[in-house]
């Protein structure tokens, strides 16, 4: 399955509370993604919470865009990536 980095911008900052509501929001994204065969692996969030870099596995950029549309998440850029492991060379 191809792996992608999804860059998202949140002009007012990403606010996910550390409670049941936040957990429910995240699980809603996971469930919506599953309808398109997409898996959210993990994300990195900038200090100001205005930008995220999300690692996703999925069949195509189009599937990722469709999944994002189901949850109204922004998609600024999708880049297909491969792992470069520095320990491979030892």
TrEMBL record:
Full protein name: DUF4242 domain-containing protein
Natural source organism: Pseudoxanthomonas helianthi
